[in-house]
Write a structure and sequence with these properties.
- This protein starts with a strand and ends in a 16-residue tail after the last helix.
- The protein contains 4 helices and 2 strands, in the order ββαααα.
- The protein has a two-stranded antiparallel sheet.
- It is mostly helical and 147 residues long.
- 39% of the residues lie in helices and 7% in strands.
- It has 2 domains: 33 residues; 82 residues, no CATH class.
């Protein structure tokens, strides 16, 4: 910024009158623009995955209103270390053509039954509990390293 200096005796003083007006103009402009930026676009799809469409062919998942099925599915992919097409048909997630989808439904039911037995209502078991990021569940701890 360029400031104008006016000499008063031995001291130099910044002439701040024009700088004040510039700063005030910027602040007033920002105050008017901020509400416009804070509002979501009118055409934006609502959150919840599926591009605003309700999930199709959901048989086992107990979805609460407003639940994000995409986030739920990401926990499964992380727990098994796989992509969506491990259980789903590419481009048609509602299809039951992939037999691994039925296996996944049985596993999800098993996890739900186990968690239902805990009186506190918290989730104690998940896919990752056994799978540890792999498609086959870990049934034994890894071998101890040789010393």
């Amino acid at each position: 910024m360029i400031a104008r200096f006016v000499k008063f005796g031995r001291r130099l003083r910044v002439k701040s009158h024009s700088m004040y007006h510039l700063v005030m103009r910027v602040l007033v402009t920002l105050l008017f623009l901020m509400p416009l930026c804070a509002q979501p676009p009118q055409d934006a799809p609502k959150k919840g995955g599926g591009g605003g469409r309700a999930p199709q062919n959901v048989k086992v998942l107990k979805l609460e209103p407003g639940a994000n099925i995409g986030q739920i599915m990401r926990t499964y992919t992380a727990g098994l270390g796989v992509q969506c097409t491990f259980c789903h048909v590419q481009g048609n997630f509602a299809s039951d053509e992939n037999p691994k989808k039925e296996v996944a439904r049985h596993m999800i039911s098993m996890v739900q039954e186990i968690n239902a037995k805990f009186p506190d209502g918290k989730e104690h078991v998940a896919c990752y509990t056994c799978h540890r990021g792999e498609t086959a569940p870990k049934i034994a701890p890894p071998a101890a390293p040789a010393q």
